Amino acid sequence: MFERLINYLLTGQDLKRRGKLRLIGHLIIRKMSKDGIWKPVEEIYGECITRAFADLVVDRLHTAGNLNLFKWHEWGTGTTAEGENQPTLETPTTEDRDEGTQAEGSATNIYRSVAEHTWGNTYTLSEWGIFSASITATGTMGDRAKLTNTVSVVSGDKTQSDYQLTVTPGG
Q: DSSP string covering 57-113, please?
């Protein structure tokens, strides 16, 4: 039974049932312009929900624990494609993770977390992830996005990551 739930969470498919439960990530990346306006840089749908996150969801259905810890945003410079078995970003930056706000999105089946970061160094950003802990190299990565277009930042630049997780039931 739990194996089927994990399969639902990762693929939205189950060979024994027609219904589907899908988790779909949506990330909007913005960069603040010199005139102080947030400008969209990239929008990514369906990035990679990790197996560790799917396993954790199943664990939380039958044990104590919190799913509301997934609010820590982290950036990286790795170039490897997304994969469900990746436990962390390929190459995290040396900067701290940012705590995102947590709210219901535009519908009751959408989780939303938004974080802003002011950069202290120069990077060419190419990956992003959301984690269950504030300290780099700890916690569970819930989702990872590989950017189609890199985002160049220098010290003093600001970026915003707006993550939405849609949980879609099926029938």
A: HHHHHHS---STT--EEEEE---PPP-TT--S-SSB-SSPPEEPP-EE-SSTTEEEE
